[in-house]
Write a structure and sequence with these properties.
This protein is mostly helical and 133 residues long. The chain is built from nine helices and no strands. The longest helix is centred in the first third of the chain and has 20 residues, at 16-35.
């Protein structure tokens, strides 16, 4: 848990807007988990995953994250890497996060297959990622 807190704090220093977004995602994730009657142990791990879902943005410069204009095509490539960068950063936590950790890598996938980074669709997308998204 200390590692999770350190990562969340690092994101807060790196980009306050992303930290606020992650907090809001955590709140909505809790509400969805309650509706789905997810048990408390799984709900706790999902909650931490929701806070960490954008942790890959630590690999993106704050200048790009807060750019006032539309990113260039090359900048979009950098931005679109954040789910995989995040998955790499939380890899040591997967033994604890379990299946819920998949949300970090998959939270931009879309039911119709138009998401990124792997164009997963439908039930190929983990339950965790569908909740966090």
């Amino acid at each position: 848990m200390q590692t999770v807190i350190e990562l969340v704090l690092a994101l807060s220093v790196h980009d306050k807007a992303t930290r606020g977004h992650s907090e809001r995602v955590r709140v909505f994730t809790d509400m969805i988990a309650d509706e789905l009657k997810i048990n408390e142990s799984d709900k706790a791990r999902l909650r931490w995953t929701a806070l960490l879902h954008d942790i890959g943005k630590l690999e993106i410069s704050p200048t790009l994250l807060n750019k006032p204009s539309q990113p260039t095509a090359e900048e979009w490539k950098v931005i679109h890497r954040h789910p995989e960068d995040g998955a790499r950063l939380i890899a040591p936590l997967l033994a604890w996060l379990g299946e819920w950790g998949r949300a970090v890598a998959e939270h931009h996938e879309r039911w119709d297959g138009t998401g990124y980074p792997h164009q997963l669709k439908g039930n190929e997308i983990s339950r965790a990622a569908r909740i966090v998204a």
